[in-house]
Each structure stands twice: as C-alpha cells, then as structure tokens.
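Anyone up for a design puzzle?
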C-alpha cells in the first residue's frame, strides 16, 4: 500500500531476446493494467524488465499488493520465473501471478517449479486479474476466480475455465503510461482484434484462447473504437505510424474485410493522416480492399506463406497453396504496399528436395531475407506437433522451456549450418536498407519517393544475392559436400556483400 492508502499493482514483461525479436511494448499487460486502473489501483507497467531488475522496480515490487508477469514468448519463462523469485524476496505478502501467450499450457508446471508464484492466469487475463485484485485487496481467497491455476494450502487448484472476452469494445484502452520516450519517433503498436480462425499446427496464437467452446475464434473491436484510439494516440503522443499487431486484421470470414472498409471510411471522413501496417492471411487479400486501405495509409502487410513444398504445407496445416501465395505477393507489389513474408525453411524432417522447392518459390517471387531463409520450425513445449515428430523418431531435448532437435537428414543439418554462417552478412545489408526505407516512408515527399524506388531495387538485389548464395550451398549439399567450408561460396558471398554495401553507402 502506498502513502495515500491506494493499493498498488506492478505489471512486468521480461526482456525479449533481441537477437530474434524486435522489442515492443507489452500490449497484453497494458490492457490488464487499464482494467486495474478502473478498479482504483495505482499501476506501474515495466516493459522489457531485465531478469535482475533495477532498484526502482524492486522498490515498486516491495510496495505492491499484486504483481503480474506477462510472457509473450515461451522463451521468456525462465526470466519470468527468476523475476517472480526476486520479487518474492522483497515482497513476501504480495500475490504474484503469471500469464501471457508464452505460458500457454504450462500453467501448472510453472507453479510447480516456482514456489514464488501464487497463481497462473489462463489465456486473456483482463477479467481474471480484475476479480483477483478485488479478492487480494479484500484479503479473501481467490479460489472462486475462474481462469486460474492457484496455489492453495500446498495444492494446485484449477479454478475453472473462463470464456475469452467477446465484446472487446467494452474493455478500456491499454494503459500507455511510461512509454512517452518510446513514442517519440511517432510509432505506436495497437491491437484491434484477437484470435485467428485458422489452425496452423506450429502456431501458439492459433491455440491461445481461441478454442473455448462456443466462443468465436476471431473477436474484434469495432472500426469506430479503433479509429477513436488512433485519434487519441495522435493527440496524446503525436503518433503517426501504427503497427497493428493482430494475428489476422482481416479475419472473421468476411467480417474483418467489412470492418476494414468501415475503418478506411472513418479514417478518411475524420481526415486522419496516418501510416499503418497489418498482418493477415494470404487468402484474405483483395485488390479493391488493398487500394482502399492504401489510400488511407496502409504501407506494410505481413503475410504467412511458411513453405512452398507440399509436405511442409500439409505438416503446417496452412490450407493455402504456393499459387495463392504468389498471387498475394503480386497483388501487394501491384498495390505499391511493402510486405514481408513469414517463412519456415527447415523442420526436423526436411529433405533437400523440399528445400529446393522452397528456394525456387522465393526466387520466383523475389522474396526472402536472412531470417526467413535460416528460419527453422520452433516447436514449443506442449505443442501437438511434438507427438507427431516423436512418432517419426525425432528426438527432442528441452532446455529452459525451449525444445531443441537435430535434423533427421544429416545433409540438411550441413546445409542449415552453411546458411547460418554464409548468409549472415546479408542481414546487415537488409537492416540498413529497411531502416532507410522506414525513414523515407515516414516523409513520402517527391524526393523521398525517388529514393524509395532506388532502395527497393537495392533490396531486391540483396534478396537475389542471398538466394544465389543459398543455391550454391544447396548444390554442394546435394553432391555430398560440406557447403560451409566451400571456399568458392565463401568468396562469392563476400564479393556480393561488398558490392551491395558500396551501393547502399550514401
Ligand atoms: S494464420 Fe497465422 S495466426 Fe492464424 S493460426 Fe496460422 S500462423 Fe497462427
């Protein structure tokens, strides 16, 4: 409790692994924070908290009645548990809870491994944490709060399922306090829908809170509610660029498309000058809709292609075809909208033929980046894919909540090693070009548009050089060699990188 008698809550997200993910604000815990503020709590949110928290965060923890830790990725869990133990050492009586998409299906296990935790919240937690808060400040047992695993009298109690929130407009807008410095570049993230109706086998999002019996798999905020938030973020923080982080902005079997049209109409009628990015499925893209959205500021779309060979597409249950993916890419190009492509080049049972088909697709469509080309399937603990792979004799080792595996085909293992080593220098070129494009996109004057066209060409040349190097590695692997040690490929890659670096230099 603080000096004025107001009870305090601390919500923390552990740091991300920046080698694999760009940092971002933790919208999940910020949405929970907003509901706690409505309950009258004093709330502090700490994004990207290091496993050894700064003194100021420890001081907050010591004053808090409720401490929540949100893990967006499973790989954050070891740090999340370390934070729980540290917070317990300074706050013996606080209720410490954990949640977030990364904790999916691991709730009892985390409680068994970490005595510092009182509970784990299942799925989306706004309503659960609000109720939990009321019990905590009243000094009552939260055993009746549905949607949790709870440590009670030395036992773990499942308090019962809780349906996900259907009326997302009824939730308060995420609490944005403490982010003013991060918003200084006018870039903000926001979430306008939750869930995804698809069933991709590798995807945690597709399983997270979307499978509650009777609840819709794609839930959404109304266009008006979203545009109100955008206007608010513009006025409060000068935000102009918005990354919409929904799994599927256009989901809902047509409802998302209708909502996107309403959204565009409202942005136009209110005269908002914005740029925004979305993520969606390739089967949802339409020429007319893209034109409409581009006119009101759509500048980037992330689509999940994932693979081009039949075996991988079946394994991932993508239910899309390479032809559809190629058409979606062509449509985005024609609409003059930047895009990136989710792609999983390797999985435990990959063979060289399937990888060649994947590379052929990337080359034919001139897409691909270092991260996409070296990307290997990540199987999270509890994933239904683990049983399938085990039946195929794939052996997994688990370490710190991450599942590690070897490729079944040793030639694939050699190829993967070569890709990681020899393609890595292209990543620096990609980042330099992407940063420059981001800056130019923000301005969009005539001079910037000219520079943008030039940079887009350079980016395409980087992709071609990357893929040409990858093909050389593949040829050596197919003939039984060790591509990572092939001096001709090493020299070829170094030459292409030097040449492109010179083109990129101002
Ligand atoms: S479409 Fe995307 S978000 Fe939906 S299940 Fe597949 S990978 Fe996950």
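Challenge accepted. My sequence:
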């Amino acid at each position: 409790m603080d000096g004025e008698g107001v009870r305090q809550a601390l919500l923390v997200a552990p740091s991300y692994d920046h080698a694999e993910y760009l940092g971002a604000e933790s919208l999940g815990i910020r949405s929970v924070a907003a509901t706690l503020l409505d309950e009258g709590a004093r709330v502090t949110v700490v994004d990207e908290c290091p496993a050894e928290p700064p003194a100021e965060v420890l001081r907050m923890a010591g004053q808090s009645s409720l401490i929540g830790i949100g893990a967006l990725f499973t790989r954050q869990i070891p740090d999340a548990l370390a934070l729980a133990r540290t917070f317990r050492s300074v706050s013996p009586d606080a209720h410490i809870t954990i949640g977030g998409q990364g904790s999916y299906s691991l709730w009892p296990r985390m409680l068994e491994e970490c005595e510092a935790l009182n509970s784990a919240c299942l799925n989306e937690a706004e309503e659960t944490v609000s109720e939990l808060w009321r019990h905590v400040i009243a000094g009552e047992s939260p055993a009746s709060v549905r949607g949790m695993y709870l440590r009670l009298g030395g036992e773990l109690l499942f308090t019962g399922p809780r349906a996900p929130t259907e009326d997302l407009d009824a939730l308060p807008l995420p609490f944005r306090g403490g982010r003013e410095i991060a918003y200084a570049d006018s870039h903000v993230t926001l979430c306008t829908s939750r869930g995804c109706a698809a069933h991709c086998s590798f995807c945690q999002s597709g399983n997270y809170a979307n499978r509650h019996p009777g609840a819709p798999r794609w839930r959404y905020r109304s266009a008006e509610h979203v545009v109100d938030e955008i206007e608010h973020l513009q006025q409060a923080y000068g935000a102009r660029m918005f990354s919409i982080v929904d799994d599927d902005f256009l989901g809902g079997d047509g409802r998302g498309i209708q909502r996107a049209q309403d959204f565009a109409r409202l942005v136009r009628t209110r005269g908002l000058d914005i740029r925004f990015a979305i993520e969606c499925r390739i089967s949802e893209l339409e020429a007319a809709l893209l034109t409409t959205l581009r006119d009101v500021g759509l500048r980037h779309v992330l689509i999940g292609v994932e693979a081009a060979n039949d075996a991988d597409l079946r394994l991932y249950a993508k239910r899309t075809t390479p032809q559809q993916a190629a058409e979606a890419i062509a449509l985005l190009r024609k609409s003059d909208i930047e895009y990136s492509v989710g792609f999983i080049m390797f999985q435990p049972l990959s063979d060289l033929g399937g990888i060649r088909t994947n590379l052929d697709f990337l080359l034919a469509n001139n897409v691909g980046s270092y991260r996409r080309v070296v990307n290997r399937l990540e199987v999270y603990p509890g994933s239904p894919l683990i049983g399938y792979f085990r039946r195929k004799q794939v052996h997994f080792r688990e370490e710190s909540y991450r599942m590690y595996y070897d490729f079944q085909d040793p030639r694939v293992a050699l190829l993967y090693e070569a890709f990681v080593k020899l393609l890595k220098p292209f990543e620096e070129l990609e980042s330099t070009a992407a940063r420059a494009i981001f800056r130019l996109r923000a301005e969009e004057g005539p001079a910037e548009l000219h520079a943008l066209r030039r940079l887009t060409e350079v980016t395409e040349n980087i992709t071609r050089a990357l893929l040409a190097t990858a093909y050389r590695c593949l040829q050596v692997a197919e003939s039984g060699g060790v591509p990572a040690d092939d001096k001709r490929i090493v020299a070829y890659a170094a030459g292409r990188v030097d040449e492109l670096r010179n083109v990129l230099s101002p």
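A detail worth pointing out: The pocket of iron/sulfur cluster is lined by residues 196, 198, 200, 203, 205-206, 247-248, 281, 304 (CB under 6 Å).
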